[in-house]
Amino acid sequence: MQPRKKSSLPVPPFLDFSEALAGREARAFGIGPEQDLWVLAGDEVLRFGGTGAPPARLLLPGTHRHVHYVQPLPGGEVVLVDGRCRYIAKDQHERNAAVYTHEGTLAREFTLGDGIQEVQATSEGRLWVSYFDEGVIGNYGWRHGGGDNAPIGQAGLVLFDAAGQRLSAYDSVAAGTDIIVDCYALNVASDDETWLCFYTDFPLVRLRSGEAPLVWETPVRGVRALAVNATHVLFGGSYKSPGDFQLYRLHDKGVRRLRPVRSLELTDEAGTPWKPTWLSGRGPWMYGIEGTRAFRIDVDTLVVAVDSWHSGTSRLEGLGDAS
Question: Which DSSP category does 216 fall into?
Fold first, then answer.
């Protein structure tokens, strides 16, 4: 069941990075484990801490490769990842991940596979990599069914270390779900906790170190991103309503079952609905980018606002500013 009530929630932009781009095109985005926004513009990586201060800058040597994802690593390193990767021959596939030092020097390259949907790093430098259907089934020379050219992402979600060595992969049997065909949403909430939602049935799955996976059935199809705290989950987008955000409780009367709370349309300060072309969740925070403006809202604040609104003591309007 989806939330019946729909509300409009003003969420002012917390950042406009048009000046920092200086006429360049933003090539890739990423949210780091410290909730900072990373932007690759030309051959420069910009880090925005969300405090209003000018971004930290890292100039790289001519990075003419295609880049779709950027993430920070320990020691000031940054990894840039191309979502596509060709299999050429045994031990000759393309290296689609490049790690640069805090001085902008190329430190190492490795292969994370083709068909990458999302990359999120932990504070310890491990890389959670999710894949869409071509990365699972195979394309660009990768072929499902085993052998040297079996897709690296055939599990749909793989964990690597900072050197590109595979550590583990999603186990659908252990989780009690169908296999991942296309991982639509990934949220690395902490070093020990990761959430995902995937095609075809779009279950919500929590992976936590040392514990069995937890699974929730969801009514949301085509979710683009998710944010989660201890009690609630916020889904961003769906097939039917790509611009809507759905808030659910994780438990209903003590049972692990999603309970609908509210459907939300997020607007800017002028009341214009946000139409983000990029959307990502990290822990309780949901981030979106439209043009050169970025917004974010955390589930904790949203839950308090909705509860206050229900009790009649407050309103949702004016809340959601994440600064």
Answer: E
